[in-house]
Model the fold of this input.
Amino acid sequence: MPSVTFEHVRKRFGDSTVVEDFDLVVADGELLVLVGGSGSGKSTILRMVAGLEEVTSGTIRIDQRDVTALPPRERDVAMVFQDYGLYPHMTVRENLSLGLRLRKIPRQEIDRRVTWAAGMLGLASLLDRKPKQLSGGQRQRVAMGRAMVREPKVFLFDEPLSNLDAGLRAQMRIEIGGLQRRLKTTTIYVTHDQVEAMTLGDRIVVLADGRIQQIGRPIDLYRAPVNRFVAGFIGTPPMNFVEGTLRENNGQAVFITEGLSIGVPREKTLTANPTQSLTLGIRPEDLRVESSAAQSVDDGSSAGVLRGRVVLVERLGGTSHVHFDVAGGGSRMMASVSNDRLPSVGETIVVRVPPERVHLFGADGRAIGRTAEIV
Amino acid sequence: MRAEQKSGSLMAGPYAAFLLVFAVYPIAFALVLVFLQWDLVTVPTFAGANNIRLLLHDGRFWRAVANTFVFLSIHVPLQIVTALALALALNRQLAGRSFWRAAFFLPVVISGAVVAILWSHLYATDVGLINRLLVKIGLSPVPWLTDPRTAMPAIAVMVTWKNVGFYVIIYLAGLQYIPRSCQEAIEIEGASAWQRFRYLTLPSLLPQTILVVTLSTINGFQLFIEPYVMTGGGPLRRTYSVVLYLYNNAFAYQKMGYAATIGVALALIIGIVVFAQRRLIGRAEAL
Amino acid sequence: MKQLRRIALYAGLTIAAITFIYPFLWMASATFKPAAEAGSLALIPHDITLDNYRTMWARAPFGRALVNSTFVATTITLAVLVFGSMTAYAMARLNFRGRPALNAATIAVLMVPGQLTLIPLYTLIVQLGWIDTYAALIVPYLFNATAILMLRQFFLQIPQSLIDSARMDGMSEPRILFTIFWPLSKPVLSIVAIFTFMGAWNEVLWPLLVVREQNLMTLPQLLTVFALGGGAGTVGVSLASAMVLVVPVVIAYMFLQRNFIESMAGSGIKG
Done:
């Protein structure tokens, strides 16, 4: 049974439309991530589910129940805020239990739930402290505990990790993911960080300018982005893009740009207009770098080959990023390589571009040869 | 830095001198005056602890102190409630918000003497505006300033009216500090409007409430122009304030030593009351 | 339902606002009513007359009092601004011996209720022979602890680099204060100016103590004496005298209300 449904939800502030025609079904127990830059509408959508923003038009349902006109406290949702929203004058215990006390839940049940949540989150020793005596990570856990004790239908997370430092963020990410899997509560999670999205989400919704760009599992968004925005947004380090055109060459479609010509599998060009200018995308980790010292053996693959001059090598431990200028062209690209044979700055390298890993985008940004999945 | 030292001393020197003459000396001399008897014309005479003894048994003084407590018991709660209510009302997206704010703050900038004179006419038993309004809606007029039971309360209401705008500003500032996420969180947690007020807004405003209580208490003890203008301290000495008594002792009775004693006593009383209040409120917060 | 609440809110606020403004409006209109109409509830007089003002003006030296008040309040405000910023500048940016002590003393002074020092100050004035002089009204107010602390707080935030480069150019400290700091301090200076002026303008207890002579009285003082002394006679005349005190303030307030609010609320909190 689906847990949260959006039907043609739209949000307007004055003259500008912040969320356009949002349609989505969130499955029961799913962790759905809304990801996008600022102004993409992701927080607005979350707040509309919470009831903190009014819906301009459309319907939101929780468990089939139309909640669009209901105030927040009648929706049975719980929210974790970016700055946690803990009540500064109350102890941790009081923070956790307020929602239950307001609903007149019996004392014993309150104590049971508070103990349970505190145990799960490692807060047992902090119950009598006030928020200002806690670290950022601890406050974050209290905020989560507060949501958990309510045992709501839906958890809403509004960029909960943004105020934490990188190390803590990585750790909390794992904890939140684990927690959600244990509790099996439907969760909608908003973030601008695509790493969070990729690691946490059962499914991800990529948003830009209030519009859905793509919905899908992390792996689908990674392998088959439906437009240039998603392709460039998902994946670290970001995808390389070059402009070029498509030509016919002996019955084969070839993408041509300065310094590179690469045969492209037919399926990818089905919807392409032969003379339009296109963008080719290739992920840094898909490029194969060989130093020109080693003889580039023609192994019969139809990989496109380009030459480049290394401009910068960023060593990151396990992998390194090689930034190079494409010979004969003006583009700067980056390849991710393992540390075995690192080229040095100034060196000329040979880079192979595997055609099956290539993404092609038309002038309108849409991926060629692929349709978006909307579930 | 020699030059800096010199400039600093030169520029701050006048103030230091001023403090010595107009602050340190008067405070010290006040304590000396307590033990003197002086009418400003003849030579002061040593009075030992006479002034203090007289003060402790002075019915008029203690009546004045009691009057102040009557005043405070009405003024302070009324001030908190009205200022808070108005601040909460103003703390939204409202059309003409600065107009309302300016309206409530207007009496604050007006001289106390003017307000006292104006309200004398409003409170006048026969022709006063308030009684005329009461009669118009069918109630009987009240002898506000001439009945010993209503006189001080009437003044308390007037002073509340005069100062409420000031405290509205204080509460408004405090309301801004309540984080939006806390307000939204408590809404999502299921709080009704009253519960939001009780569990979040009011506790968050504790510092402001302490300030309101402290300032209006100090203000209450310093009451002068209102009884001076409106009632002269009557009826039956029920609006006689401590400062009025101090003034009369100096100006009318020419008893400098005794007046100074009243001043010192007043300062002590204010100090004790304010201290006790802060303690009490601090303890109430812990509950 | 939400609409109803909004309407109730506006209605409540309007009623409240009326209770704060109406008395002043009534007061103003009462001053234009002839004796027969005195005390009527109407806001527009049936017969408009200036008699009350003429009577008031004739019976007591209100013109003189207006001059006195203006003179005293202006002098005090200027003094507080100039001397106050000199002191604040020294306390904020110049290292001199005794600076911490002066700081502590300033804060301590604010804690002491004025009533404690009232009598000794009065006796001091008497002994200096300053009764019935402008000196008595002005000198005790030349320096204002609240103003100094406020200005000091503001001066602390001005970048040291401005001072350093000015010193290197050979500027004296006072010159730095008035040519560099002052232009940057307009907001705080206007706040100090307003609450100092208003305090001086409305002050009544002190003048009542040190000034006996009618010609030297300040406006609120003369107004009080006039109202109590029975010189007013009728409501209209008594209120007319109040109007002289109030109208300049209200006019200034209408144009500068944000500054007023910022100033008087801010200074009160500090005090």
In short: Residues 61-286 of chain B form a domain with the MetI-like fold fold (CATH 1.10.3720.10). Chain B has a mean pLDDT of 90. The first strand of chain B starts at residue 36 and ends at 37.
